[in-house]
Fold this protein.
Amino acid sequence: MTEGPLSDVLVLDLTRALAGPHAAMMLGDMGARVIKIESPDGDDSRGWGPPFLGEGEDRESTYFMSANRNKESIVLDLKSDDGRDVLTRLVARADVLMENFRVGVLDRLGFTVERLHEINPGLVIMSITGFGHDGPEASRSGYDQIAQGEGGLMSITGTQQPTKVGVPIADLVAGMYGAYGVVAALHERNRTGVGRVVRTSLLAGMVGVHAYQGTRWTVGGEVPGLAGDHHPSISPYGMFATGSAPVQIACGSEGLWRALCGAFGWDAAEPEFATNALRVANRGALIERIEALFADRPAEHWLGLLSDAGVPAGMVRSMDAVYGWEQTLSQGLVLDVEHATKGDLKLPGSPIRFDDNPYSGGRSEHLAPPTLGQHNESVREWLDS
């Protein structure tokens, strides 16, 4: 098996919390060597919990573990001569440097873009901020919940009031865009020999995933509101109560509407619901009609009926159900790793698979998230070799 398409890439990960670490982890999943450079206090997310594994000084945060697999960890005090010297030597060998400090912090430490490219002209630099690197609010610090609200996502999420997504989606999306930009910049660097600066932000990531909700305003002049559990432009497309658990239906075409009606014994040409536009206009009545039909039988009955009719439908699984689901396991989405102090761990895996590797990501072996400074000696020895 290969060690991944980025196995010849060295990444310096100066990021902390989630957006930057997630971006660096994505590159590590693809085989890059990622050296995580932490302050003496460690990444902020090492203290984010509960839950933790262990207690006292030996405890490890499960939050930290979610964004730091496939990395080595060294501790550097970048305010000290030694810390700056080691980072300078690492930059000279690296392909990528990733940071998510507030605007200007890395400059004050003596590592401006100009200085970094003086040390290594081919270095790709990725920087993630909260609200952008310039503009009137560039100095604001960025946290996921704030970005979800400021970036519009909360205004379309929920049923009764604006609601945040159940995962830190602003951080995760910014990290994904950051990793995507790095791979593009590496491709260009291989052609030109010159490293580019890649910039994104939590705000940019939120705007980047507005999709049709954004164009409802920019093109259609309509301000979207709370979307709840039903699609604003397609019907029936959402979650419906049954005699037991809820069932989700995605009826995304007129053909699927006819198939649904055939399964339910309805007339697909009924004037009130004959087209998608009519079904959207009369969504409330359609929801009531479907839920009245569903009320007397359990979810399993309706899921079977819809499946037989070829109508996309599904249940709402809890996290334990997802990780115990045969389909999840068949896709290599649960990784077994050996942690330095906590033994065998199971982690969520990379969502990408390659044709010569049955595991998620491009690696044949995945590394557990490192303990703080776990690789201090080995990295320094490698630098001296």
